[in-house]
Amino acid sequence: MHLPIIAPSILAANFAKLGEETRTVLDAGAEWIHFDVMDNHYVPNLSFGPMICEALRKDGITAPIDVHLMVSPVENMIQDFAKAGASLITIHPEATIHLDRNLQMIKDLGCQAGIALNPATSIDCLDYIMDKLDLILVMSVNPGFGGQKFLPSALKKITDIRRKINENNLNIRLSVDGGVTEYNIQSIFKAGADTFVAGSAIFGKPDYATIIKTMKDACR
Ligand code: DX5
Ligand code: ZN
């Protein structure tokens, strides 16, 4: 299993100070930046696009940017985010009719590829695409908004996917997204996740270093 990674979702950051917030949370010990892209079509909310990702890169952010595309269609955004400096691009199977082709497109553009599974989405769709995946993102809330409550059904899904990854000896990160806090992170880690997206639990605190350390300490 991979070393645990904390990926703060800047959806919960102060947008008026996005560059500063991003640097602060990385200096506080976060490994990745989670970048939630919402289109008011696939999900009922609107966030930010590739120009903001590019602006963070131009501002000197070198850490991996983990782009979570909650958009449909996906093709244009895959291309634009690859150009804008995304490290990893994750898409939802429901958002495209050509999942395999789009995962390959992400790889061909030089990024790592991920798939995000909504709470009601079965893990069966993983079977024929596992070889193209660098990350599986288990949604522990319905996508569209930060600050929602963790759905406990995600724990069984994480356990089932961890088994699949280990049985096939695959080098795939297993991420969880939605309602992750310092209180539930240990049970999520024990279920088999190695990558933890957290928005409000981190940006809602006055001291990012303390909360990130608390979360990391819970994962061992
Ligand atoms: C939900 C997003 C999440 C969310 C996490 O659609 O994908 O990344 O912002 O936020 P919290 O940690 O506040 O649930
Ligand atoms: Zn996300």
Automatic annotation (TrEMBL):
Instruction: Tell me the lineage of the source organism.
Output: Bacteria, Pseudomonadati, Pseudomonadota, Gammaproteobacteria, Enterobacterales
Recorded catalytic reaction(s): these are: D-ribulose 5-phosphate = D-xylulose 5-phosphate
Q: Which CDD domains match?
A: RPE
Pathway(s) this gene product operates in, as recorded in its UniProt entry:
Carbohydrate degradation
Q: Which residues does UniProt mark as catalytic?
A: D36, D177
Which purpose does this protein serve, as stated in its record? Catalyzes the reversible epimerization of D-ribulose 5-phosphate to D-xylulose 5-phosphate.
Record bears the keyword Metal-binding: yes
**Pfam families xref list:** Ribul_P_3_epim (PF00834)
Which segments cross the bilayer?
none
Q: Which parts of the chain are coiled coil? A: none
State the name under which the record lists this protein: Ribulose-phosphate 3-epimerase
Binding of a divalent metal cation, residues:
H34, D36, H68, D177
Which UniProt keywords are given for this protein, alphabetically ordered? Carbohydrate metabolism, Isomerase, Metal-binding
What superkingdom heads the lineage?
Bacteria
Annotated residues that bind substrate are located at S9, H68, G144, F145, G146, G147, D177, G178, G179, G199, S200
Task: Write down the SUPFAM superfamilies for this protein, in alphabetical order.
Answer: Ribulose-phoshate binding barrel (SSF51366)
